[in-house]
Amino acid sequence: MSANAPANTLLGKTTDYIDHYAPELLTPIARSLGRDAIGRHDFRGTDIWRLYEMTWIDERGLPQVAAGEIHIPATSPNIVESKSLKLYIGSLTQTVIKSVKEAEELIRRDVGACVGADIAVHLSPVDRWHCPVRDVPGTLLEKEAGDMTFTVYDVDPTLLKPAPAEEDAKPVTEILSSNLLRSRCPVTGQPDHASITIGYLGPKIDHQSLLAYIVSFRRHQGFHEQCCETIFNDLMNAFKPQALTVFCCFTRRGGIDISPFRSTEMDLPGTIVRSVRQ
Prior knowledge:
Layout: E1 28-30, H1 32-38, E2 45-57, E3 63-73, E4 78-80, H2 82-90, H3 100-115, E5 120-125, E6 139-140, E7 172-184, E8 191-202, H4 207-215, H5 224-239, E9 243-250, E10 256-263
Parallel strand pairs: 6-7
Antiparallel strand pairs: 1-4, 2-3, 2-10, 3-5, 7-8, 8-9, 9-10
């Protein structure tokens, strides 16, 4: 278990799968737990949760199925623990809900109370839900690995290096991506896999050093949101870019995935990517 792991969560515990409305299942985790460790609290962005396996029954007892997204602002004091969200969504299975709009309002109220902020919920019946799979944009770093060797599998920001200096070098704008981000749950140690996109305006980053840094998360234990913020913070400290965005698209568990987005410029990405593994 990670030293920064929270106490009193449902992670790693045997749990009953309740199929009637149970908002008390939702478990908040203070964002300060991760942010105190990295020394930065002023994050801008959104945690984008995607729901694939949502169902309830209507007033006739007919099952309804939907899919959609929950958007939690990075300014909320808490995150919602992922297993508790899965169990909460599952608790709606035999709950009578009159409409998709009513389901949205229910989740908005309950999850918002858990994280301590106003949130957005967007649901659609599955026959109307459109969320196409997209390739992560930009230059794929692993294609530039060449004959590199990798030996560091614990987070090491000293791996980050600027590109070789050029005379009269000016700030550059780049979008860089990788499918090699892997971390572990801070409580159970289970693996989490993600694709990551980094966009910046600033001194040019050495691509191979950035790839080595991303690979160094391989044994790191941290929640998805904390990993994204650690990467954002390390890049800000190393390069002082004028603008920076970090978007981590983690693969799903229990019918839910999460894509934390952090930025100096905006609260939501222009395009919300659903990667091929999501």
